[in-house]
Amino acid sequence: MTETQILSDVINNSPCVELLKLRNREIIVLFLYKTFYLHREPVLYESLKLELTDYLSSINLENDEENDINVFDSYDEKAYKYIQKWTDKGFLRNYQEESGEVFYELSSYSSKTIDWLIGLKRDEFVGTESKFMNLFGRINELVEFTNEDPAERIKILEQKKQEIEHQIQSLKAGESAMVYEDYQVLPRFREITRTAKELLSDFKEVEDNFKSITKSIYQKRTEEGISKGDILGFTFDSLDNLQSSSQGKSFYAFWDFLMTPSMQDKWDRMVDDLYSSIDSSQIKQDDMFLRNMKSYLYSSGKKVYQANDKMAEKLSRIICENNSSQSAASKKVIQDIQSALLKLSSMNIKPDISLELETLPVISMPLERKLTLDKNDDISYDKVIEIASADIAEALNVDKLFVEHSVDREVLKSRITKSLKRRRQITLKEVVDESGGLEKGLSELFGYISVLRGFKHNINIDRTQIIGFNSEFHKSIVVPEIIILK
């Protein structure tokens, strides 16, 4: 495919270009930026709909013909239509948690579009020196690491060694260390931050690749004459191609790097030192993205693995499927339905599907009050209830009616905040241990979990931790690992 054909395909088919073609593009892009891009976190459907309803109301949006929105729609209906349209066009993507809740987040297309728009901003000055030195360093790195001649590599390393020894001797002789000036620091910092944001979009592309393989498995399943062995072979070939591709190799190598504890600690130290140096130099910058980048990358990378797990789950169901459980006729009907839906999906058509019952539904409510014209019999009570002479405090086991322990949530919040001051992240078990354990049993543990809504946190369902809540009887509970982030 030539560059001309590639450009033509992007202009006519890319959701990035379609987003910029919309008449109300400014309104839509600004909402996506404020809701998703700034916080980099998925949004629950109900929260997204409510936030979009308030936004449309605040700007008094009346109609939008491109999205089938008219002046007679309520703002709630307009928000619903917008979310559906944005999802169908590829501006947003959604996924369902095990709890059944649906979350939305920016697609890789929308994320890259906003990255590009922000990159068009006219800077106060153009850091030509930093860009050239970055270019010079990358070329030098490519020359070094594409040279397989041992003698040449030794020559390059010896040259580096001489330069480092010269710097050491100069510092020992009392010369001042070379440091970047403000005009050198700021463009380099911006370039690092811009690259970090682009990395999140790359993660989404890898996740989309896994999802496309899953969709291909569904398509293969609907084809006639396809055996389970054929589907297995197709899946393994697709995975092998993905993992052996440049994108796959880069992602897995980076994920291994990100999950290495020593590298995580080194990253935290470098980022803290970078911001400290910039603050001490009184360089003006408001972008704090790098401070939270590790948690953003962890969340995005985790979704890649979840997409992989979903594909494996689909494949497992196909393998374990019992062909004798379905008749040939019913199986053929199901395959035809799946094939038709996949064709509509490939054309971005969302069918209006409903079920029609040939008979009226039978509703059974055993505890409902029956409709009748008969009057209820009046009940009269002849006996008078006697008042007990004893005090209620003298009753047996009365103390069980009252809560023995009360949990102060503000105290729990302060404990978490205090623990986060000393580190970038901490597990819930570590917070409990540092606070001396659970003094008030499970109610205190549930109190911790309830206050986590006010903190950034991740739940790692693949790892569990044991938290004791009754030392006298040696009772404990197993919970998923909960990581609280600063």
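That was protein one. Protein two is written in the same sequence-then-structure order:
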Amino acid sequence: MNGVNKTLYIPLYGKASVSKKGIILKDKKAEMIWEKEGFPLKGKAKSKWLTYYMGMRSAVFDSWVKEKLEKYPSASVLYIGCGMDSRIERIGNIKNTWYDIDFPSVIQERKKYYQETESYHMLCADASKTEWIAELPKTEQVIVIMEGVSMYLKLQELVQLLDALQKHYKNVHIFMDCYTEFAARASKYKNPVNSVGVQNLHGLDEPGYLEEQTGIGFVKEHDLTPDYLINELKGFERQFFKCVLGGNMAKKMYRLFEYQTNRQP
């Protein structure tokens, strides 16, 4: 795997760690995969604070996906940049057509631990390209998960991806986390992904820019570190995370945006 692909092990480690502690996220599959595939992480990549952050981020994404699936029970799901994540298993009882999408080397690893079914598919694709979208069946509603992806795409590549999605599907619902522009610049020198050889990352400060460029409407910004998840921490760790790493402090580095097509009733 190249550096970008290896970054999948950082959130995998985070989810496995919090799951093993019995807080924030229950993910036995992450525990099992990390035990078999994990390797020594360096510096911030192995920080307990980052594991809490990764666990919270995934829990917030899970909640959003569940909410959208309840509202749009016939929607298909595209999880772009799925890595080794077990979201489809964490949510459970999924009957929707679901595509877990990532680079070929990642999907090759993924197939050691996941089996395709009539409704669940693993697709090799590059998010910086858009040709693969035209090959997918068109559906009335599509739920697009982009967790830990946008920062690896140049802004124009992100625009092209969203534009291709809204042209292919009638109604698109997108949930994605983004670095701020400051965080992207700082990441060249100090970021957990540096430990696996990644330095060039990209940020977005104005969520309305993507709406202007693609026509997909900006819905709202979500909280990546909600109090109900921070409160699963104990004592000093809870207070430190709440005061130093969560809330408005987190938003200076990291944002979570929801978009949907304006054709939505």
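The longest helix spans residues 48-71. Keep this in mind for the problem set.
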